[in-house]
Amino acid sequence: MSMKEFKLKSVSKSKGFTLIEMFTLLGIVGVAVSFAIPEIRSAIVKSEIVTVTNEMILSLKLARSEAIVRGKDTIVCSSTDSATCSKTDGDWIKGWIVGVDLNNDNSIQEANGELLWAFKSNVSSIMTITPSDPVFNQLVSFSYNGWLNDGDAVGFDICSGLGAVEGYERREIRSSVAGEPKLTINAGLKC
To answer: What is the pLDDT of residues 114-149, one digit of tens each?
Structure first.
């Protein structure tokens, strides 16, 4: 046998992972996910707070402007069914509706053509919307000139329920008796 005739066969490469490589990969993925989950939760909660705050501000502005344009009282009230006022204190987080109070009964009935806008909330149950004055526990009413019918200043505090631990600032919506609703992100006060 000459040197030319003797050939070494090459060893074929493996086409998979070894058990050790698989466990190492799973360990790395597990560590990465454990760091990502709190950040994902934080992003979701912050997004919920922003959405609810923006919807509330838009609803108050809509009600005020529609009162002026239509020359009729308008209402923003808490609602659980997106069609009628719930008439229950503390239901704001479930949603609210905006409408024209055509029959002056401090209520909105979709069947009567009074409904203008509905917001159905699907945020986590740990969020809260607290009126700054008990007058607004169930509804906010604007007169035909855009001024509040009741109360000196409308306001709502929107919190995530995780604020003291996670550091989410309380969102405050405030307006004078005749002014536009404005947002304050109160970095000094946690929920």
So the answer is: 999 999 987 766 788 889 888 888 899 999 999 998
Q: Where are the beta strands (DSSP E) in 71-181?
A: 74-78, 95-100, 115-120, 128-131, 139-142, 153-159, 169-176
Distance (Å) of CA 186 to CA 34, 96, 111, 153, 168: 30, 24, 40, 18, 10
Q: What structural domains does the chain harbor?
A: 58-190 (3.55.40.10)
* Token pair listed for 65: 């402007």
CB burial of residue 130 (10 Å; 0-12, 13-18, 19+): middle
Q: Name the residue type at position 106.
A: N
User: Tokens 């019918």 sit at which residue?
Assistant: 149
One-letter amino acid identity for 45? V
CA angle 121-132-186, nearest 5°?
A: 80
Residue that wins the pLDDT comparison between 152 and 138: 138
The pTM of the full predicted model, rounded to 2 decimals, is: 0.77
Three-class DSSP category at 171 = strand
